[in-house]
Each structure stands twice: as C-alpha cells, then as structure tokens.
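Sequence, structure tokens reproduced for absentees:
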Amino acid sequence: MAEKRSERPGVRRAVQRGFTMVELVVVMILLGIVSVFVLPKLQGAISFQDEGWRDQLVGALRYAQKTAVSHRRLVCVSIGTTSVTLSIASANPATACDTALQGPGGAGAFGSTSSAAATVVNPAGMIFLQPDGRTTTDGGGNTAATRTISMTGAANVVLYGATGFVE
C-alpha cells in the first residue's frame, strides 16, 4: 500500500481512495446521455416483438381459414394469452375438432407462442372456422360472429364472421 508523505517529517498520512466529485459528475452525465439514446431503442425492440406476434397470429388465422375451405373441414382456433393452436375435424360434417392441424409444409402440429404481453379474444372462447369460410361461435356453424383480437403493444386483429376475412 502506498502512503503519501506529509510536509512534516515523521508524520505519515494514508492515501485516500475513492472517486472525485468531477468523476462522479461525468459518470452521471454519461448515464443521462446513454439513457436518452438507448432506452427508446429498447422500447422499439419490444414493440417489434409485439408486431411480430401479431403477424404470426394473422398468419395462423389466415392459414386456418384457407385450410377449412380447401379441406372442407371444420377448423378450430384456440388463442391463449401468448399462444395460438390450430386443430381440424377428422370428418365432415363435424361439430368439434379432434386432430391437431399440420403446419405449412406438413411439418408438425401448427402452434405458435409469443413472449409478448397478453392477447385477448372478444368475444372470448374458441374460434370455429366452417368449411364455407365463415367464423362461428359454435362447431355446428349456427351463428356467424365477428371476433376482435386485441393485444398489448400492437394493432387489433379482426376476424369477420360472414366471410372469415382476417384484417
């Protein structure tokens, strides 16, 4: 340990350790500058994740609607707070879905998850896509219903009941 000698002979004074006031002020200024430029970039990355989840959800709904029409089968969509799962009826006519829907290209069951904030379907419940393309409140296809899917940090997704169009 280095010691500093004082002007008086025989008296020793220990060196003080720590930061000077100037160093502390410079660090505070640098932290302020970094927070002004870095925090908005982080917010942009988070909203980018939310938009990515919205795009995945729209893609899944469009895939489900096209599959229902092309296979002439009932397709069911289950949307959780951070996930979407598709299933298909094994026979036609049907009122329930009993088989996991294969993803595009036939690879595995279609499912998608997100790390984004919560997703809410209004009105709540499973979405049924009929073989004629309509979106209904039940597997029997009795009542067409427009669904609005809202999520934190991204625009709403609307699924029109009469046509199955996803917007």
The CA atoms of residues 63 and 105 lie 12 Å apart. Residues 34-159 form a domain with the minor pseudopilin epsh fold fold (CATH 3.55.40).
